[in-house]
């Protein structure tokens, strides 16, 4: 499994971010080919001190190739282009293969 993680710093207009993200952006995300699962939250908290992030998004793909293909697809390009419409604080995007834990 391969995960894509997006961390969103505080936007200029949190209410606009929440509304636009749920009603417009996430329906675009749901169209990504090869997307196995996704989840998000606006309730991001740090274990100590203030959190540097307002929202978080996580997507799962079978492997890195599936994620790369999804992001390069027409829906993937539409998703990427749409970020500027709500994420005025920017976005930190990382991805990684998931390794099983011991135990």
Descriptive report:
The protein is an alpha+beta fold. It has a domain at about 15-35 and about 65-90. The chain is about 35% helix and about 25% strand. It is built from 3 helices and 4 strands; from the N terminus they run E-H-E-E-H-H-E. The chain has helices at about 15-30, 65-70, 75-80, and strands spanning about 1-10, 35-40, 55-60, 90-95. Helix 2 (about 65-70) crosses helix 3. The longest helix has 16 residues, at about 15-30. The protein is flat. The two termini are about 20 Å apart. About 15% of the residues are buried.
For the largest beta-sheet, the strand count, sense and barrel status come to: 4 strands, antiparallel
Portion of residues in helices? 25-40%
Strand content: 15-25%
In the sheet with the most strands, the strands line up as 2-3-1-4
- Shape annotation: flat
The sequence of SSEs as H and E is EHEEHHE
Poorly predicted regions are none
Structural class: alpha+beta
Mean pLDDT: 97
Number of helices: 3
Distance between the termini: 19 Å
Q: In angstroms, what is the radius of gyration?
A: 14 Å
